[in-house]
Amino acid sequence: MHAYRSHTCADLNKSNVGETVRLSGWVHRIRDHGGLLFIDLRDHYGITQVMADPDSPVFSDLEKVRSEWCIQIEGNVLARDESLVNASIPTGEVEVFIRGLEVLGKSEELPLMVFGDQEYPEETRLRYRYLDLRREKMQKNMLLRSNMVASIRRRMWDKGFNEYQTPIITASSPEGARDFLVPSRQHPGKFYALPQAPQQFKQLMMVSGFDKYFQIAPCFRDEDPRADRSPTDFYQLDLEMSFVTQQDVFDTIQPVMQGVFEEFGGGRKVDTEWPQISYKDAAKWYGSDKPDLRNPIKMQDCSEHFRGSGFAIFAKLLEQDGTEVRAIPAPTGGSRKFCDRMNKFAQAEGLPGMGYIFWRKQSPDSIAQERGITVKDVNALIKSGEIVLGNEAAGPLAKNIGPERTEAIRQQLGLDVGDAAFFLGGKPKAFESVAGRARNVIGEELGLTDKDRFAFAWVVDFPIYEADEETGKIDFEHNPFSMPQGGVEALQGDPLKVLGYQYDLACNGYELVSGAIRNHRPEIMFKAFEIAGYGKDEVEKRFGGMVNAFQYGAPPHGGCAAGIDRMVMLLADEANIREVIMFPMNQRAEDLMMSAPSEPMNDQLMELGLRVIPQDQ
User: Fold this and answer.
1) Cβ neighbours of residue 201 closer than 8 Å, sequence gap 6 or more
2) Count of CB atoms situated within 10 Å of the CB of 143
3) How many CB atoms lie under 10 A from the CB of residue 316?
4) Span 171-198, pLDDT tens digits
5) Cβ(166)–Cβ(219) under 8 Å?
6) Is the backbone of residue 98 left (phi > 0), alpha (psi -120 to 50) or beta?
7) How far from chain centre, in Å, is Cα 534?
8) How far is the C-alpha of 213 from the C-alpha of 241, rounded, in Å?
9) What is the pTM of this model?
10) Buried residues in 1-27 as b, exposed as e (16+ CB within 10 A)
């Protein structure tokens, strides 16, 4: 028999009754039933109930065992009484009577319990991550991650991609975030950088003649943390292809992503139709470049209904260039209580409020007020059929703009009695993000968002440039290495109208994939950077390796990268990315378990020729 175990804690069933077995694992739970000791023994694979009574030669030793001790037991497999079968676990028909015990590792008093679903502060969980990871949910999340990555690799290999590794220590290159710098001992005063992404290397591979590349790549960015982003490092499915169009990239990555979500989505619906939405329309309709299409609400421009209206705030606003009023339809949201709740949401977002209209069945009171007659007379006219109750608009906006305009808004938005609409106005860039969040809240609160679904959408036609509102200076708005649509000719006109072959894939409100068809022509690249104020010398200095390579027969190429951590987060139905990373940092980019970052020793600094300047606290 093996020194530690003959079976795992998930292996035993009725066919093993009568066998002598050896198991090793952790004490998950102990139950003392007056002379009978029951222990749920747990390993990575499952749980087996083991037990002993005073006839066991190790009963007295077993009484000393505590939660999370690592033990080895030897004993006989017994069938449980039919009334005691635990159908919720694979080993629930049997138990093991213990005849031998060895303590492999004692445990001190636990700072957090592994058994049960008790919540602990994040600081405690990360400081004792090795205990936190013993919990069933965390074991499942990490196993999901491992299996998902294995599935991705198989799918990429089946598509004819080859996996290659790119350097971890490289030159600093602006990719949109801060680099982690690494001082060089052999070259005092110079620094390497950890790569924000394998971007330049994978493009250089295409120049080298490798047609299809992929990698499960570690990326390093010194970023502020968010619930869906690690502040230090993350992993992505990185891929690049030669001689491809934008649609070729879409057609390649969709079956991989769709297949992974179908395989690990737990039966949730995975959309097979992935619409392509322009960046401009995504902002207009959803207030986000990563729209959640599980929510059917689509915002609309309602400016014309408020232009010259009795609602002075919007009417005056629309006299300014570049402004508009946007409506957020809210089917079934037609109650003053809900409208007031959404108004408070807007105030919490830093706005003075959010205008609204809701539609309800006409009341005799409102008709009496409108016609200047009594309610009694109205009721009589209703009874005689001379008045038929219709619908009416309610709320402060409705009173200001009148029934004709409110009816035109209702028809444009396709709303009816019991529905509502909310309105925000100004320059779109100033209110779009708030409008997008309001859309999400409305969808959630009204039960319009389909939770049992993965909804994907390609966001395309990203603008390459933007202008600073104060100075008017032109700079890159998105990836500067994207091929401009229309090539060099497009760069001769208004730069703010230049769109790039750049794309993102959104799923359920998260950006999962980002990519582009690359600008592989040096003359187009120099012109693109010149418009943003970067001279040829500066481009060659910053991106010399890639610019030089493009002068030697670079093929058209493009690709993308998919965030592994975010994919697992969605599949595991977790709201925080730290729940799917084995050893994550905290919100302050600290590793509480390993005490990182830490102060270097003096001899390390001397060897590197560095000195730390104390910071004011």
Assistant:
1) 166, 167, 170, 195
2) 11
3) 11
4) 887 656 789 999 999 999 999 999 999 9
5) no
6) beta
7) 34
8) 7
9) 0.91
10) eeeebbbbbbbbeeebeeeebbbbbbb
